[in-house]
Amino acid sequence: MSELKAAIIGLGLIGGSLALAIQRHGNVTVTGFDADPVTLREAQTLGVIHHSAGSAAEAAEGCDYIFFATPVNETVRMLKEAASGWNLKEGAILSDTGSTKTWIMEEAGRFAGGNAVFVGGHPMAGSHKSGVRAAREHLFENAYYLLTPAGRKDAPAVRKLESFLSVTKAKTAVVSAAEHDTMTAVVSHFPHVVAASLVRRLEQETEEMPFTRELAAGGFRDITRIASSDPVMWRDITLQNRDELIDQLDLWIEEMNAVREMIESGDAESIHEFYGGAKAYRDTLPAKSQGALYTTFDLNVNIPDSPGAISEIAGSLADAGISITNVRIVESRTDVFGIMVVSFQTTEDREKGRILLSERTNYDIYIT
Ligand SMILES: NC(=O)C1=CN([C@@H]2O[C@H](COP(=O)(O)OP(=O)(O)OC[C@H]3O[C@@H](n4cnc5c(N)ncnc54)[C@H](O)[C@@H]3O)[C@@H](O)[C@H]2O)C=CC1
Ligand SMILES: O=C(O)C(=O)Cc1ccc(O)cc1
């Protein structure tokens, strides 16, 4: 096996996770660069990268694969620089992990006719967390990894990149940049606008009734989890995909006006149909194990609301060496059962946890 060199620029959640997954190749040396010196040092200490570089251009020099995992406006800025001034290896493949693709692919047009090829990329997995410490080798497992080549002529580079990315265990799919931005506006970008605005609505309400925030549990937390995402990243995504977002906003406002009318007129049949239709369609969506935007695999355990039950469950999993990424309690009140939601990094871990807890406890255990 010949040695390969890869560079990762931006060593946060996504760049760090990609660097770790790429190390599975065994014959790839990973050099990293991050504008934040603390992140760069941590990436090396944590073993996320083999070598650190003093600049993005230095990291990229002589590499076979170069990935930009920076906020999308930074990626656009650096592509300009890379196409004109970087010393790229003949046949190098450049890619990115950005959540938007149209502007990035427009900028990548600068590589046309040069000695390197740019193929856009977007692993559709992640979380509201950011930073190198949140990076995980198996973040992309089972998730879709969308690729947006500039055209058919880049098919050989796409095949090489797909093969290089196979160690992430993600499922690659090729789409155009425009298709990408339309689809992600619907399933990812617009939901972030909605989540943030729901939280802002709560904040406004609590000026009058501060107790409201204490009641924001369960459903509110579920639907607004992504409002805890990094504001720089989402500012850039919103700016780059603004046309699609405006379309989504217009359609949403139309829908909300119809909902308003339905509620105002007390139209029970339509209201029932509104919720029923949403539930029926929601219930047909791909399971979490099939990837898409989900990265943790949750197991629900109905428990009596007592600290003993929580430590019993966490302790049993720890004893068996099954790693968990998060634990939360929902709808817990004294004297009734609460739900302990235990998150795992992989479906395999969750299945092991489910079997173990079913054997060792009498709690009702289920996956939703
Ligand atoms: N967070 C998520 O769930 C997902 C994010 N993405 C995309 O991946 C990219 C990275 O996102 P995250 O890893 O979540 O962000 P992050 O905030 O965890 O990491 C970004 C890193 O880039 C560094 N950086 C910023 N400007 C730089 C520059 N000019 N040169 C070098 N480093 C620079 C920052 O210091 C930071 O360490 C973004 O384009 C985002 O849209 C894609 C899929 C999922
Ligand atoms: O936390 C979540 O569910 C996300 O929404 C993660 C995410 C964020 C940005 C992407 O481009 C893809 C996935």
UniProtKB/TrEMBL annotation:
EC number: 1.3.1.12
This protein's record includes keyword Amino-acid biosynthesis: yes
Domain annotation Prephenate/arogenate dehydrogenase: ranges: 4-293
Pathway(s) it belongs to: Amino-acid biosynthesis; L-tyrosine biosynthesis; (4-hydroxyphenyl)pyruvate from prephenate (NAD(+) route): step 1/1
The organism's place on the tree of life at top rank: Bacteria
Reactions listed under catalytic activity: prephenate + NAD(+) = 3-(4-hydroxyphenyl)pyruvate + CO2 + NADH
Name of a matching Pfam family: PDH_N
Signal peptide: none
Keyword tags: Amino-acid biosynthesis, Aromatic amino acid biosynthesis, NAD, Oxidoreductase, Tyrosine biosynthesis
All copies of domain ACT, residue ranges: 298-368
Alphabetized InterPro entries for the sequence: 6-PGluconate_DH-like_C_sf, ACT-like_dom_sf, ACT_dom, NAD(P)-bd_dom_sf, PDH_C, PDH_N, Preph/Arog_dehydrog, Prephen_DH
Molecular functions (GO terms): prephenate dehydrogenase (NAD+) activity
Matching PANTHER family: PREPHENATE DEHYDROGENASE, PREPHENATE DEHYDROGENASE [NADP(+)]
NCBIfam families: PRK06545.1-5
Protein family (similarity comment): Belongs to the prephenate/arogenate dehydrogenase family.
Name of this protein: Prephenate dehydrogenase
Source species: Bhargavaea changchunensis
Taxonomic classification: Bacteria, Bacillati, Bacillota, Bacilli, Bacillales
